[in-house]
């Protein structure tokens, strides 16, 4: 069962994690083609007892289409997506959320609000013989240095971002699996650290 790590400073009841199941297939040029297989929404800090992120096993249904469909005006301020989104029959995501206190000393090295695997190469952390550098993280010795002639490229403008988003939404219409796709079994463990505790 894969283990993913996550930390956030957002402690709002409306905080949600959107997870998309994507299959990768090789292309002749060596790159990979990503095809969306479904997505789900995980409510992290909901006040509803059935959605709370307490320790324990949970199960989420996967929905057809792309998570970009959540940007549709009909879904704005919607709490219950299941009535508006088509569920993939027999497909679900099993997960467990646990606090992982060992992340406290290294969370400055991890991007906030991003799922990350302990198998990834994380600058500043020693590799682990188990392959999971975040299970028992060990900081590398810091080496001070100076950068000269540093260039920073900023993200695209809002207009360019919206244009790219529209292109991606259009591509999703052609790149998602249609009804009839079946997933046999998938499981996930998310180890989270709440920066307010």
TrEMBL record:
GO cellular component, one term: ciliary base
The organism's place on the tree of life at top rank: Eukaryota
GO BP term, pick one: negative regulation of canonical Wnt signaling pathway
InterPro entries: NPHP4
Protein name as catalogued: Uncharacterized protein
Annotated organism of origin: Eleginops maclovinus (Patagonian blennie)
Lineage: Eukaryota, Metazoa, Chordata, Craniata, Vertebrata
């Amino acid at each position: 069962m894969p283990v993913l790590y996550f930390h956030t400073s957002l402690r709002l009841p409306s905080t949600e994690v959107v997870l998309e199941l994507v299959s990768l297939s090789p292309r002749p040029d060596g790159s990979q083609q990503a095809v969306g297989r479904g997505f789900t929404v995980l409510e992290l800090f909901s006040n509803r007892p059935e959605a709370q992120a307490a320790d324990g096993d949970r199960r989420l249904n996967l929905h057809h289409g792309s998570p970009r469909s959540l940007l549709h005006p009909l879904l704005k301020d919607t709490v219950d997506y299941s009535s508006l989104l088509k569920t993939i029959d027999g497909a679900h995501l099993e997960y467990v959320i646990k606090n992982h206190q060992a992340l406290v000393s290294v969370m400055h090295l991890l991007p906030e609000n991003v799922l990350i695997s302990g198998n990834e190469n994380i600058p500043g952390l020693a590799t682990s013989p188990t392959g999971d550098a975040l299970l028992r993280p060990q900081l590398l010795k810091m080496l001070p240095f100076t950068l000269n002639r540093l260039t920073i490229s900023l993200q695209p403008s809002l207009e360019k971002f919206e244009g790219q988003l529209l292109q991606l939404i259009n591509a999703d219409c052609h790149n998602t699996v249609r009804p009839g796709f079946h997933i046999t079994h998938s499981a996930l463990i998310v180890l989270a650290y709440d920066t307010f505790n």
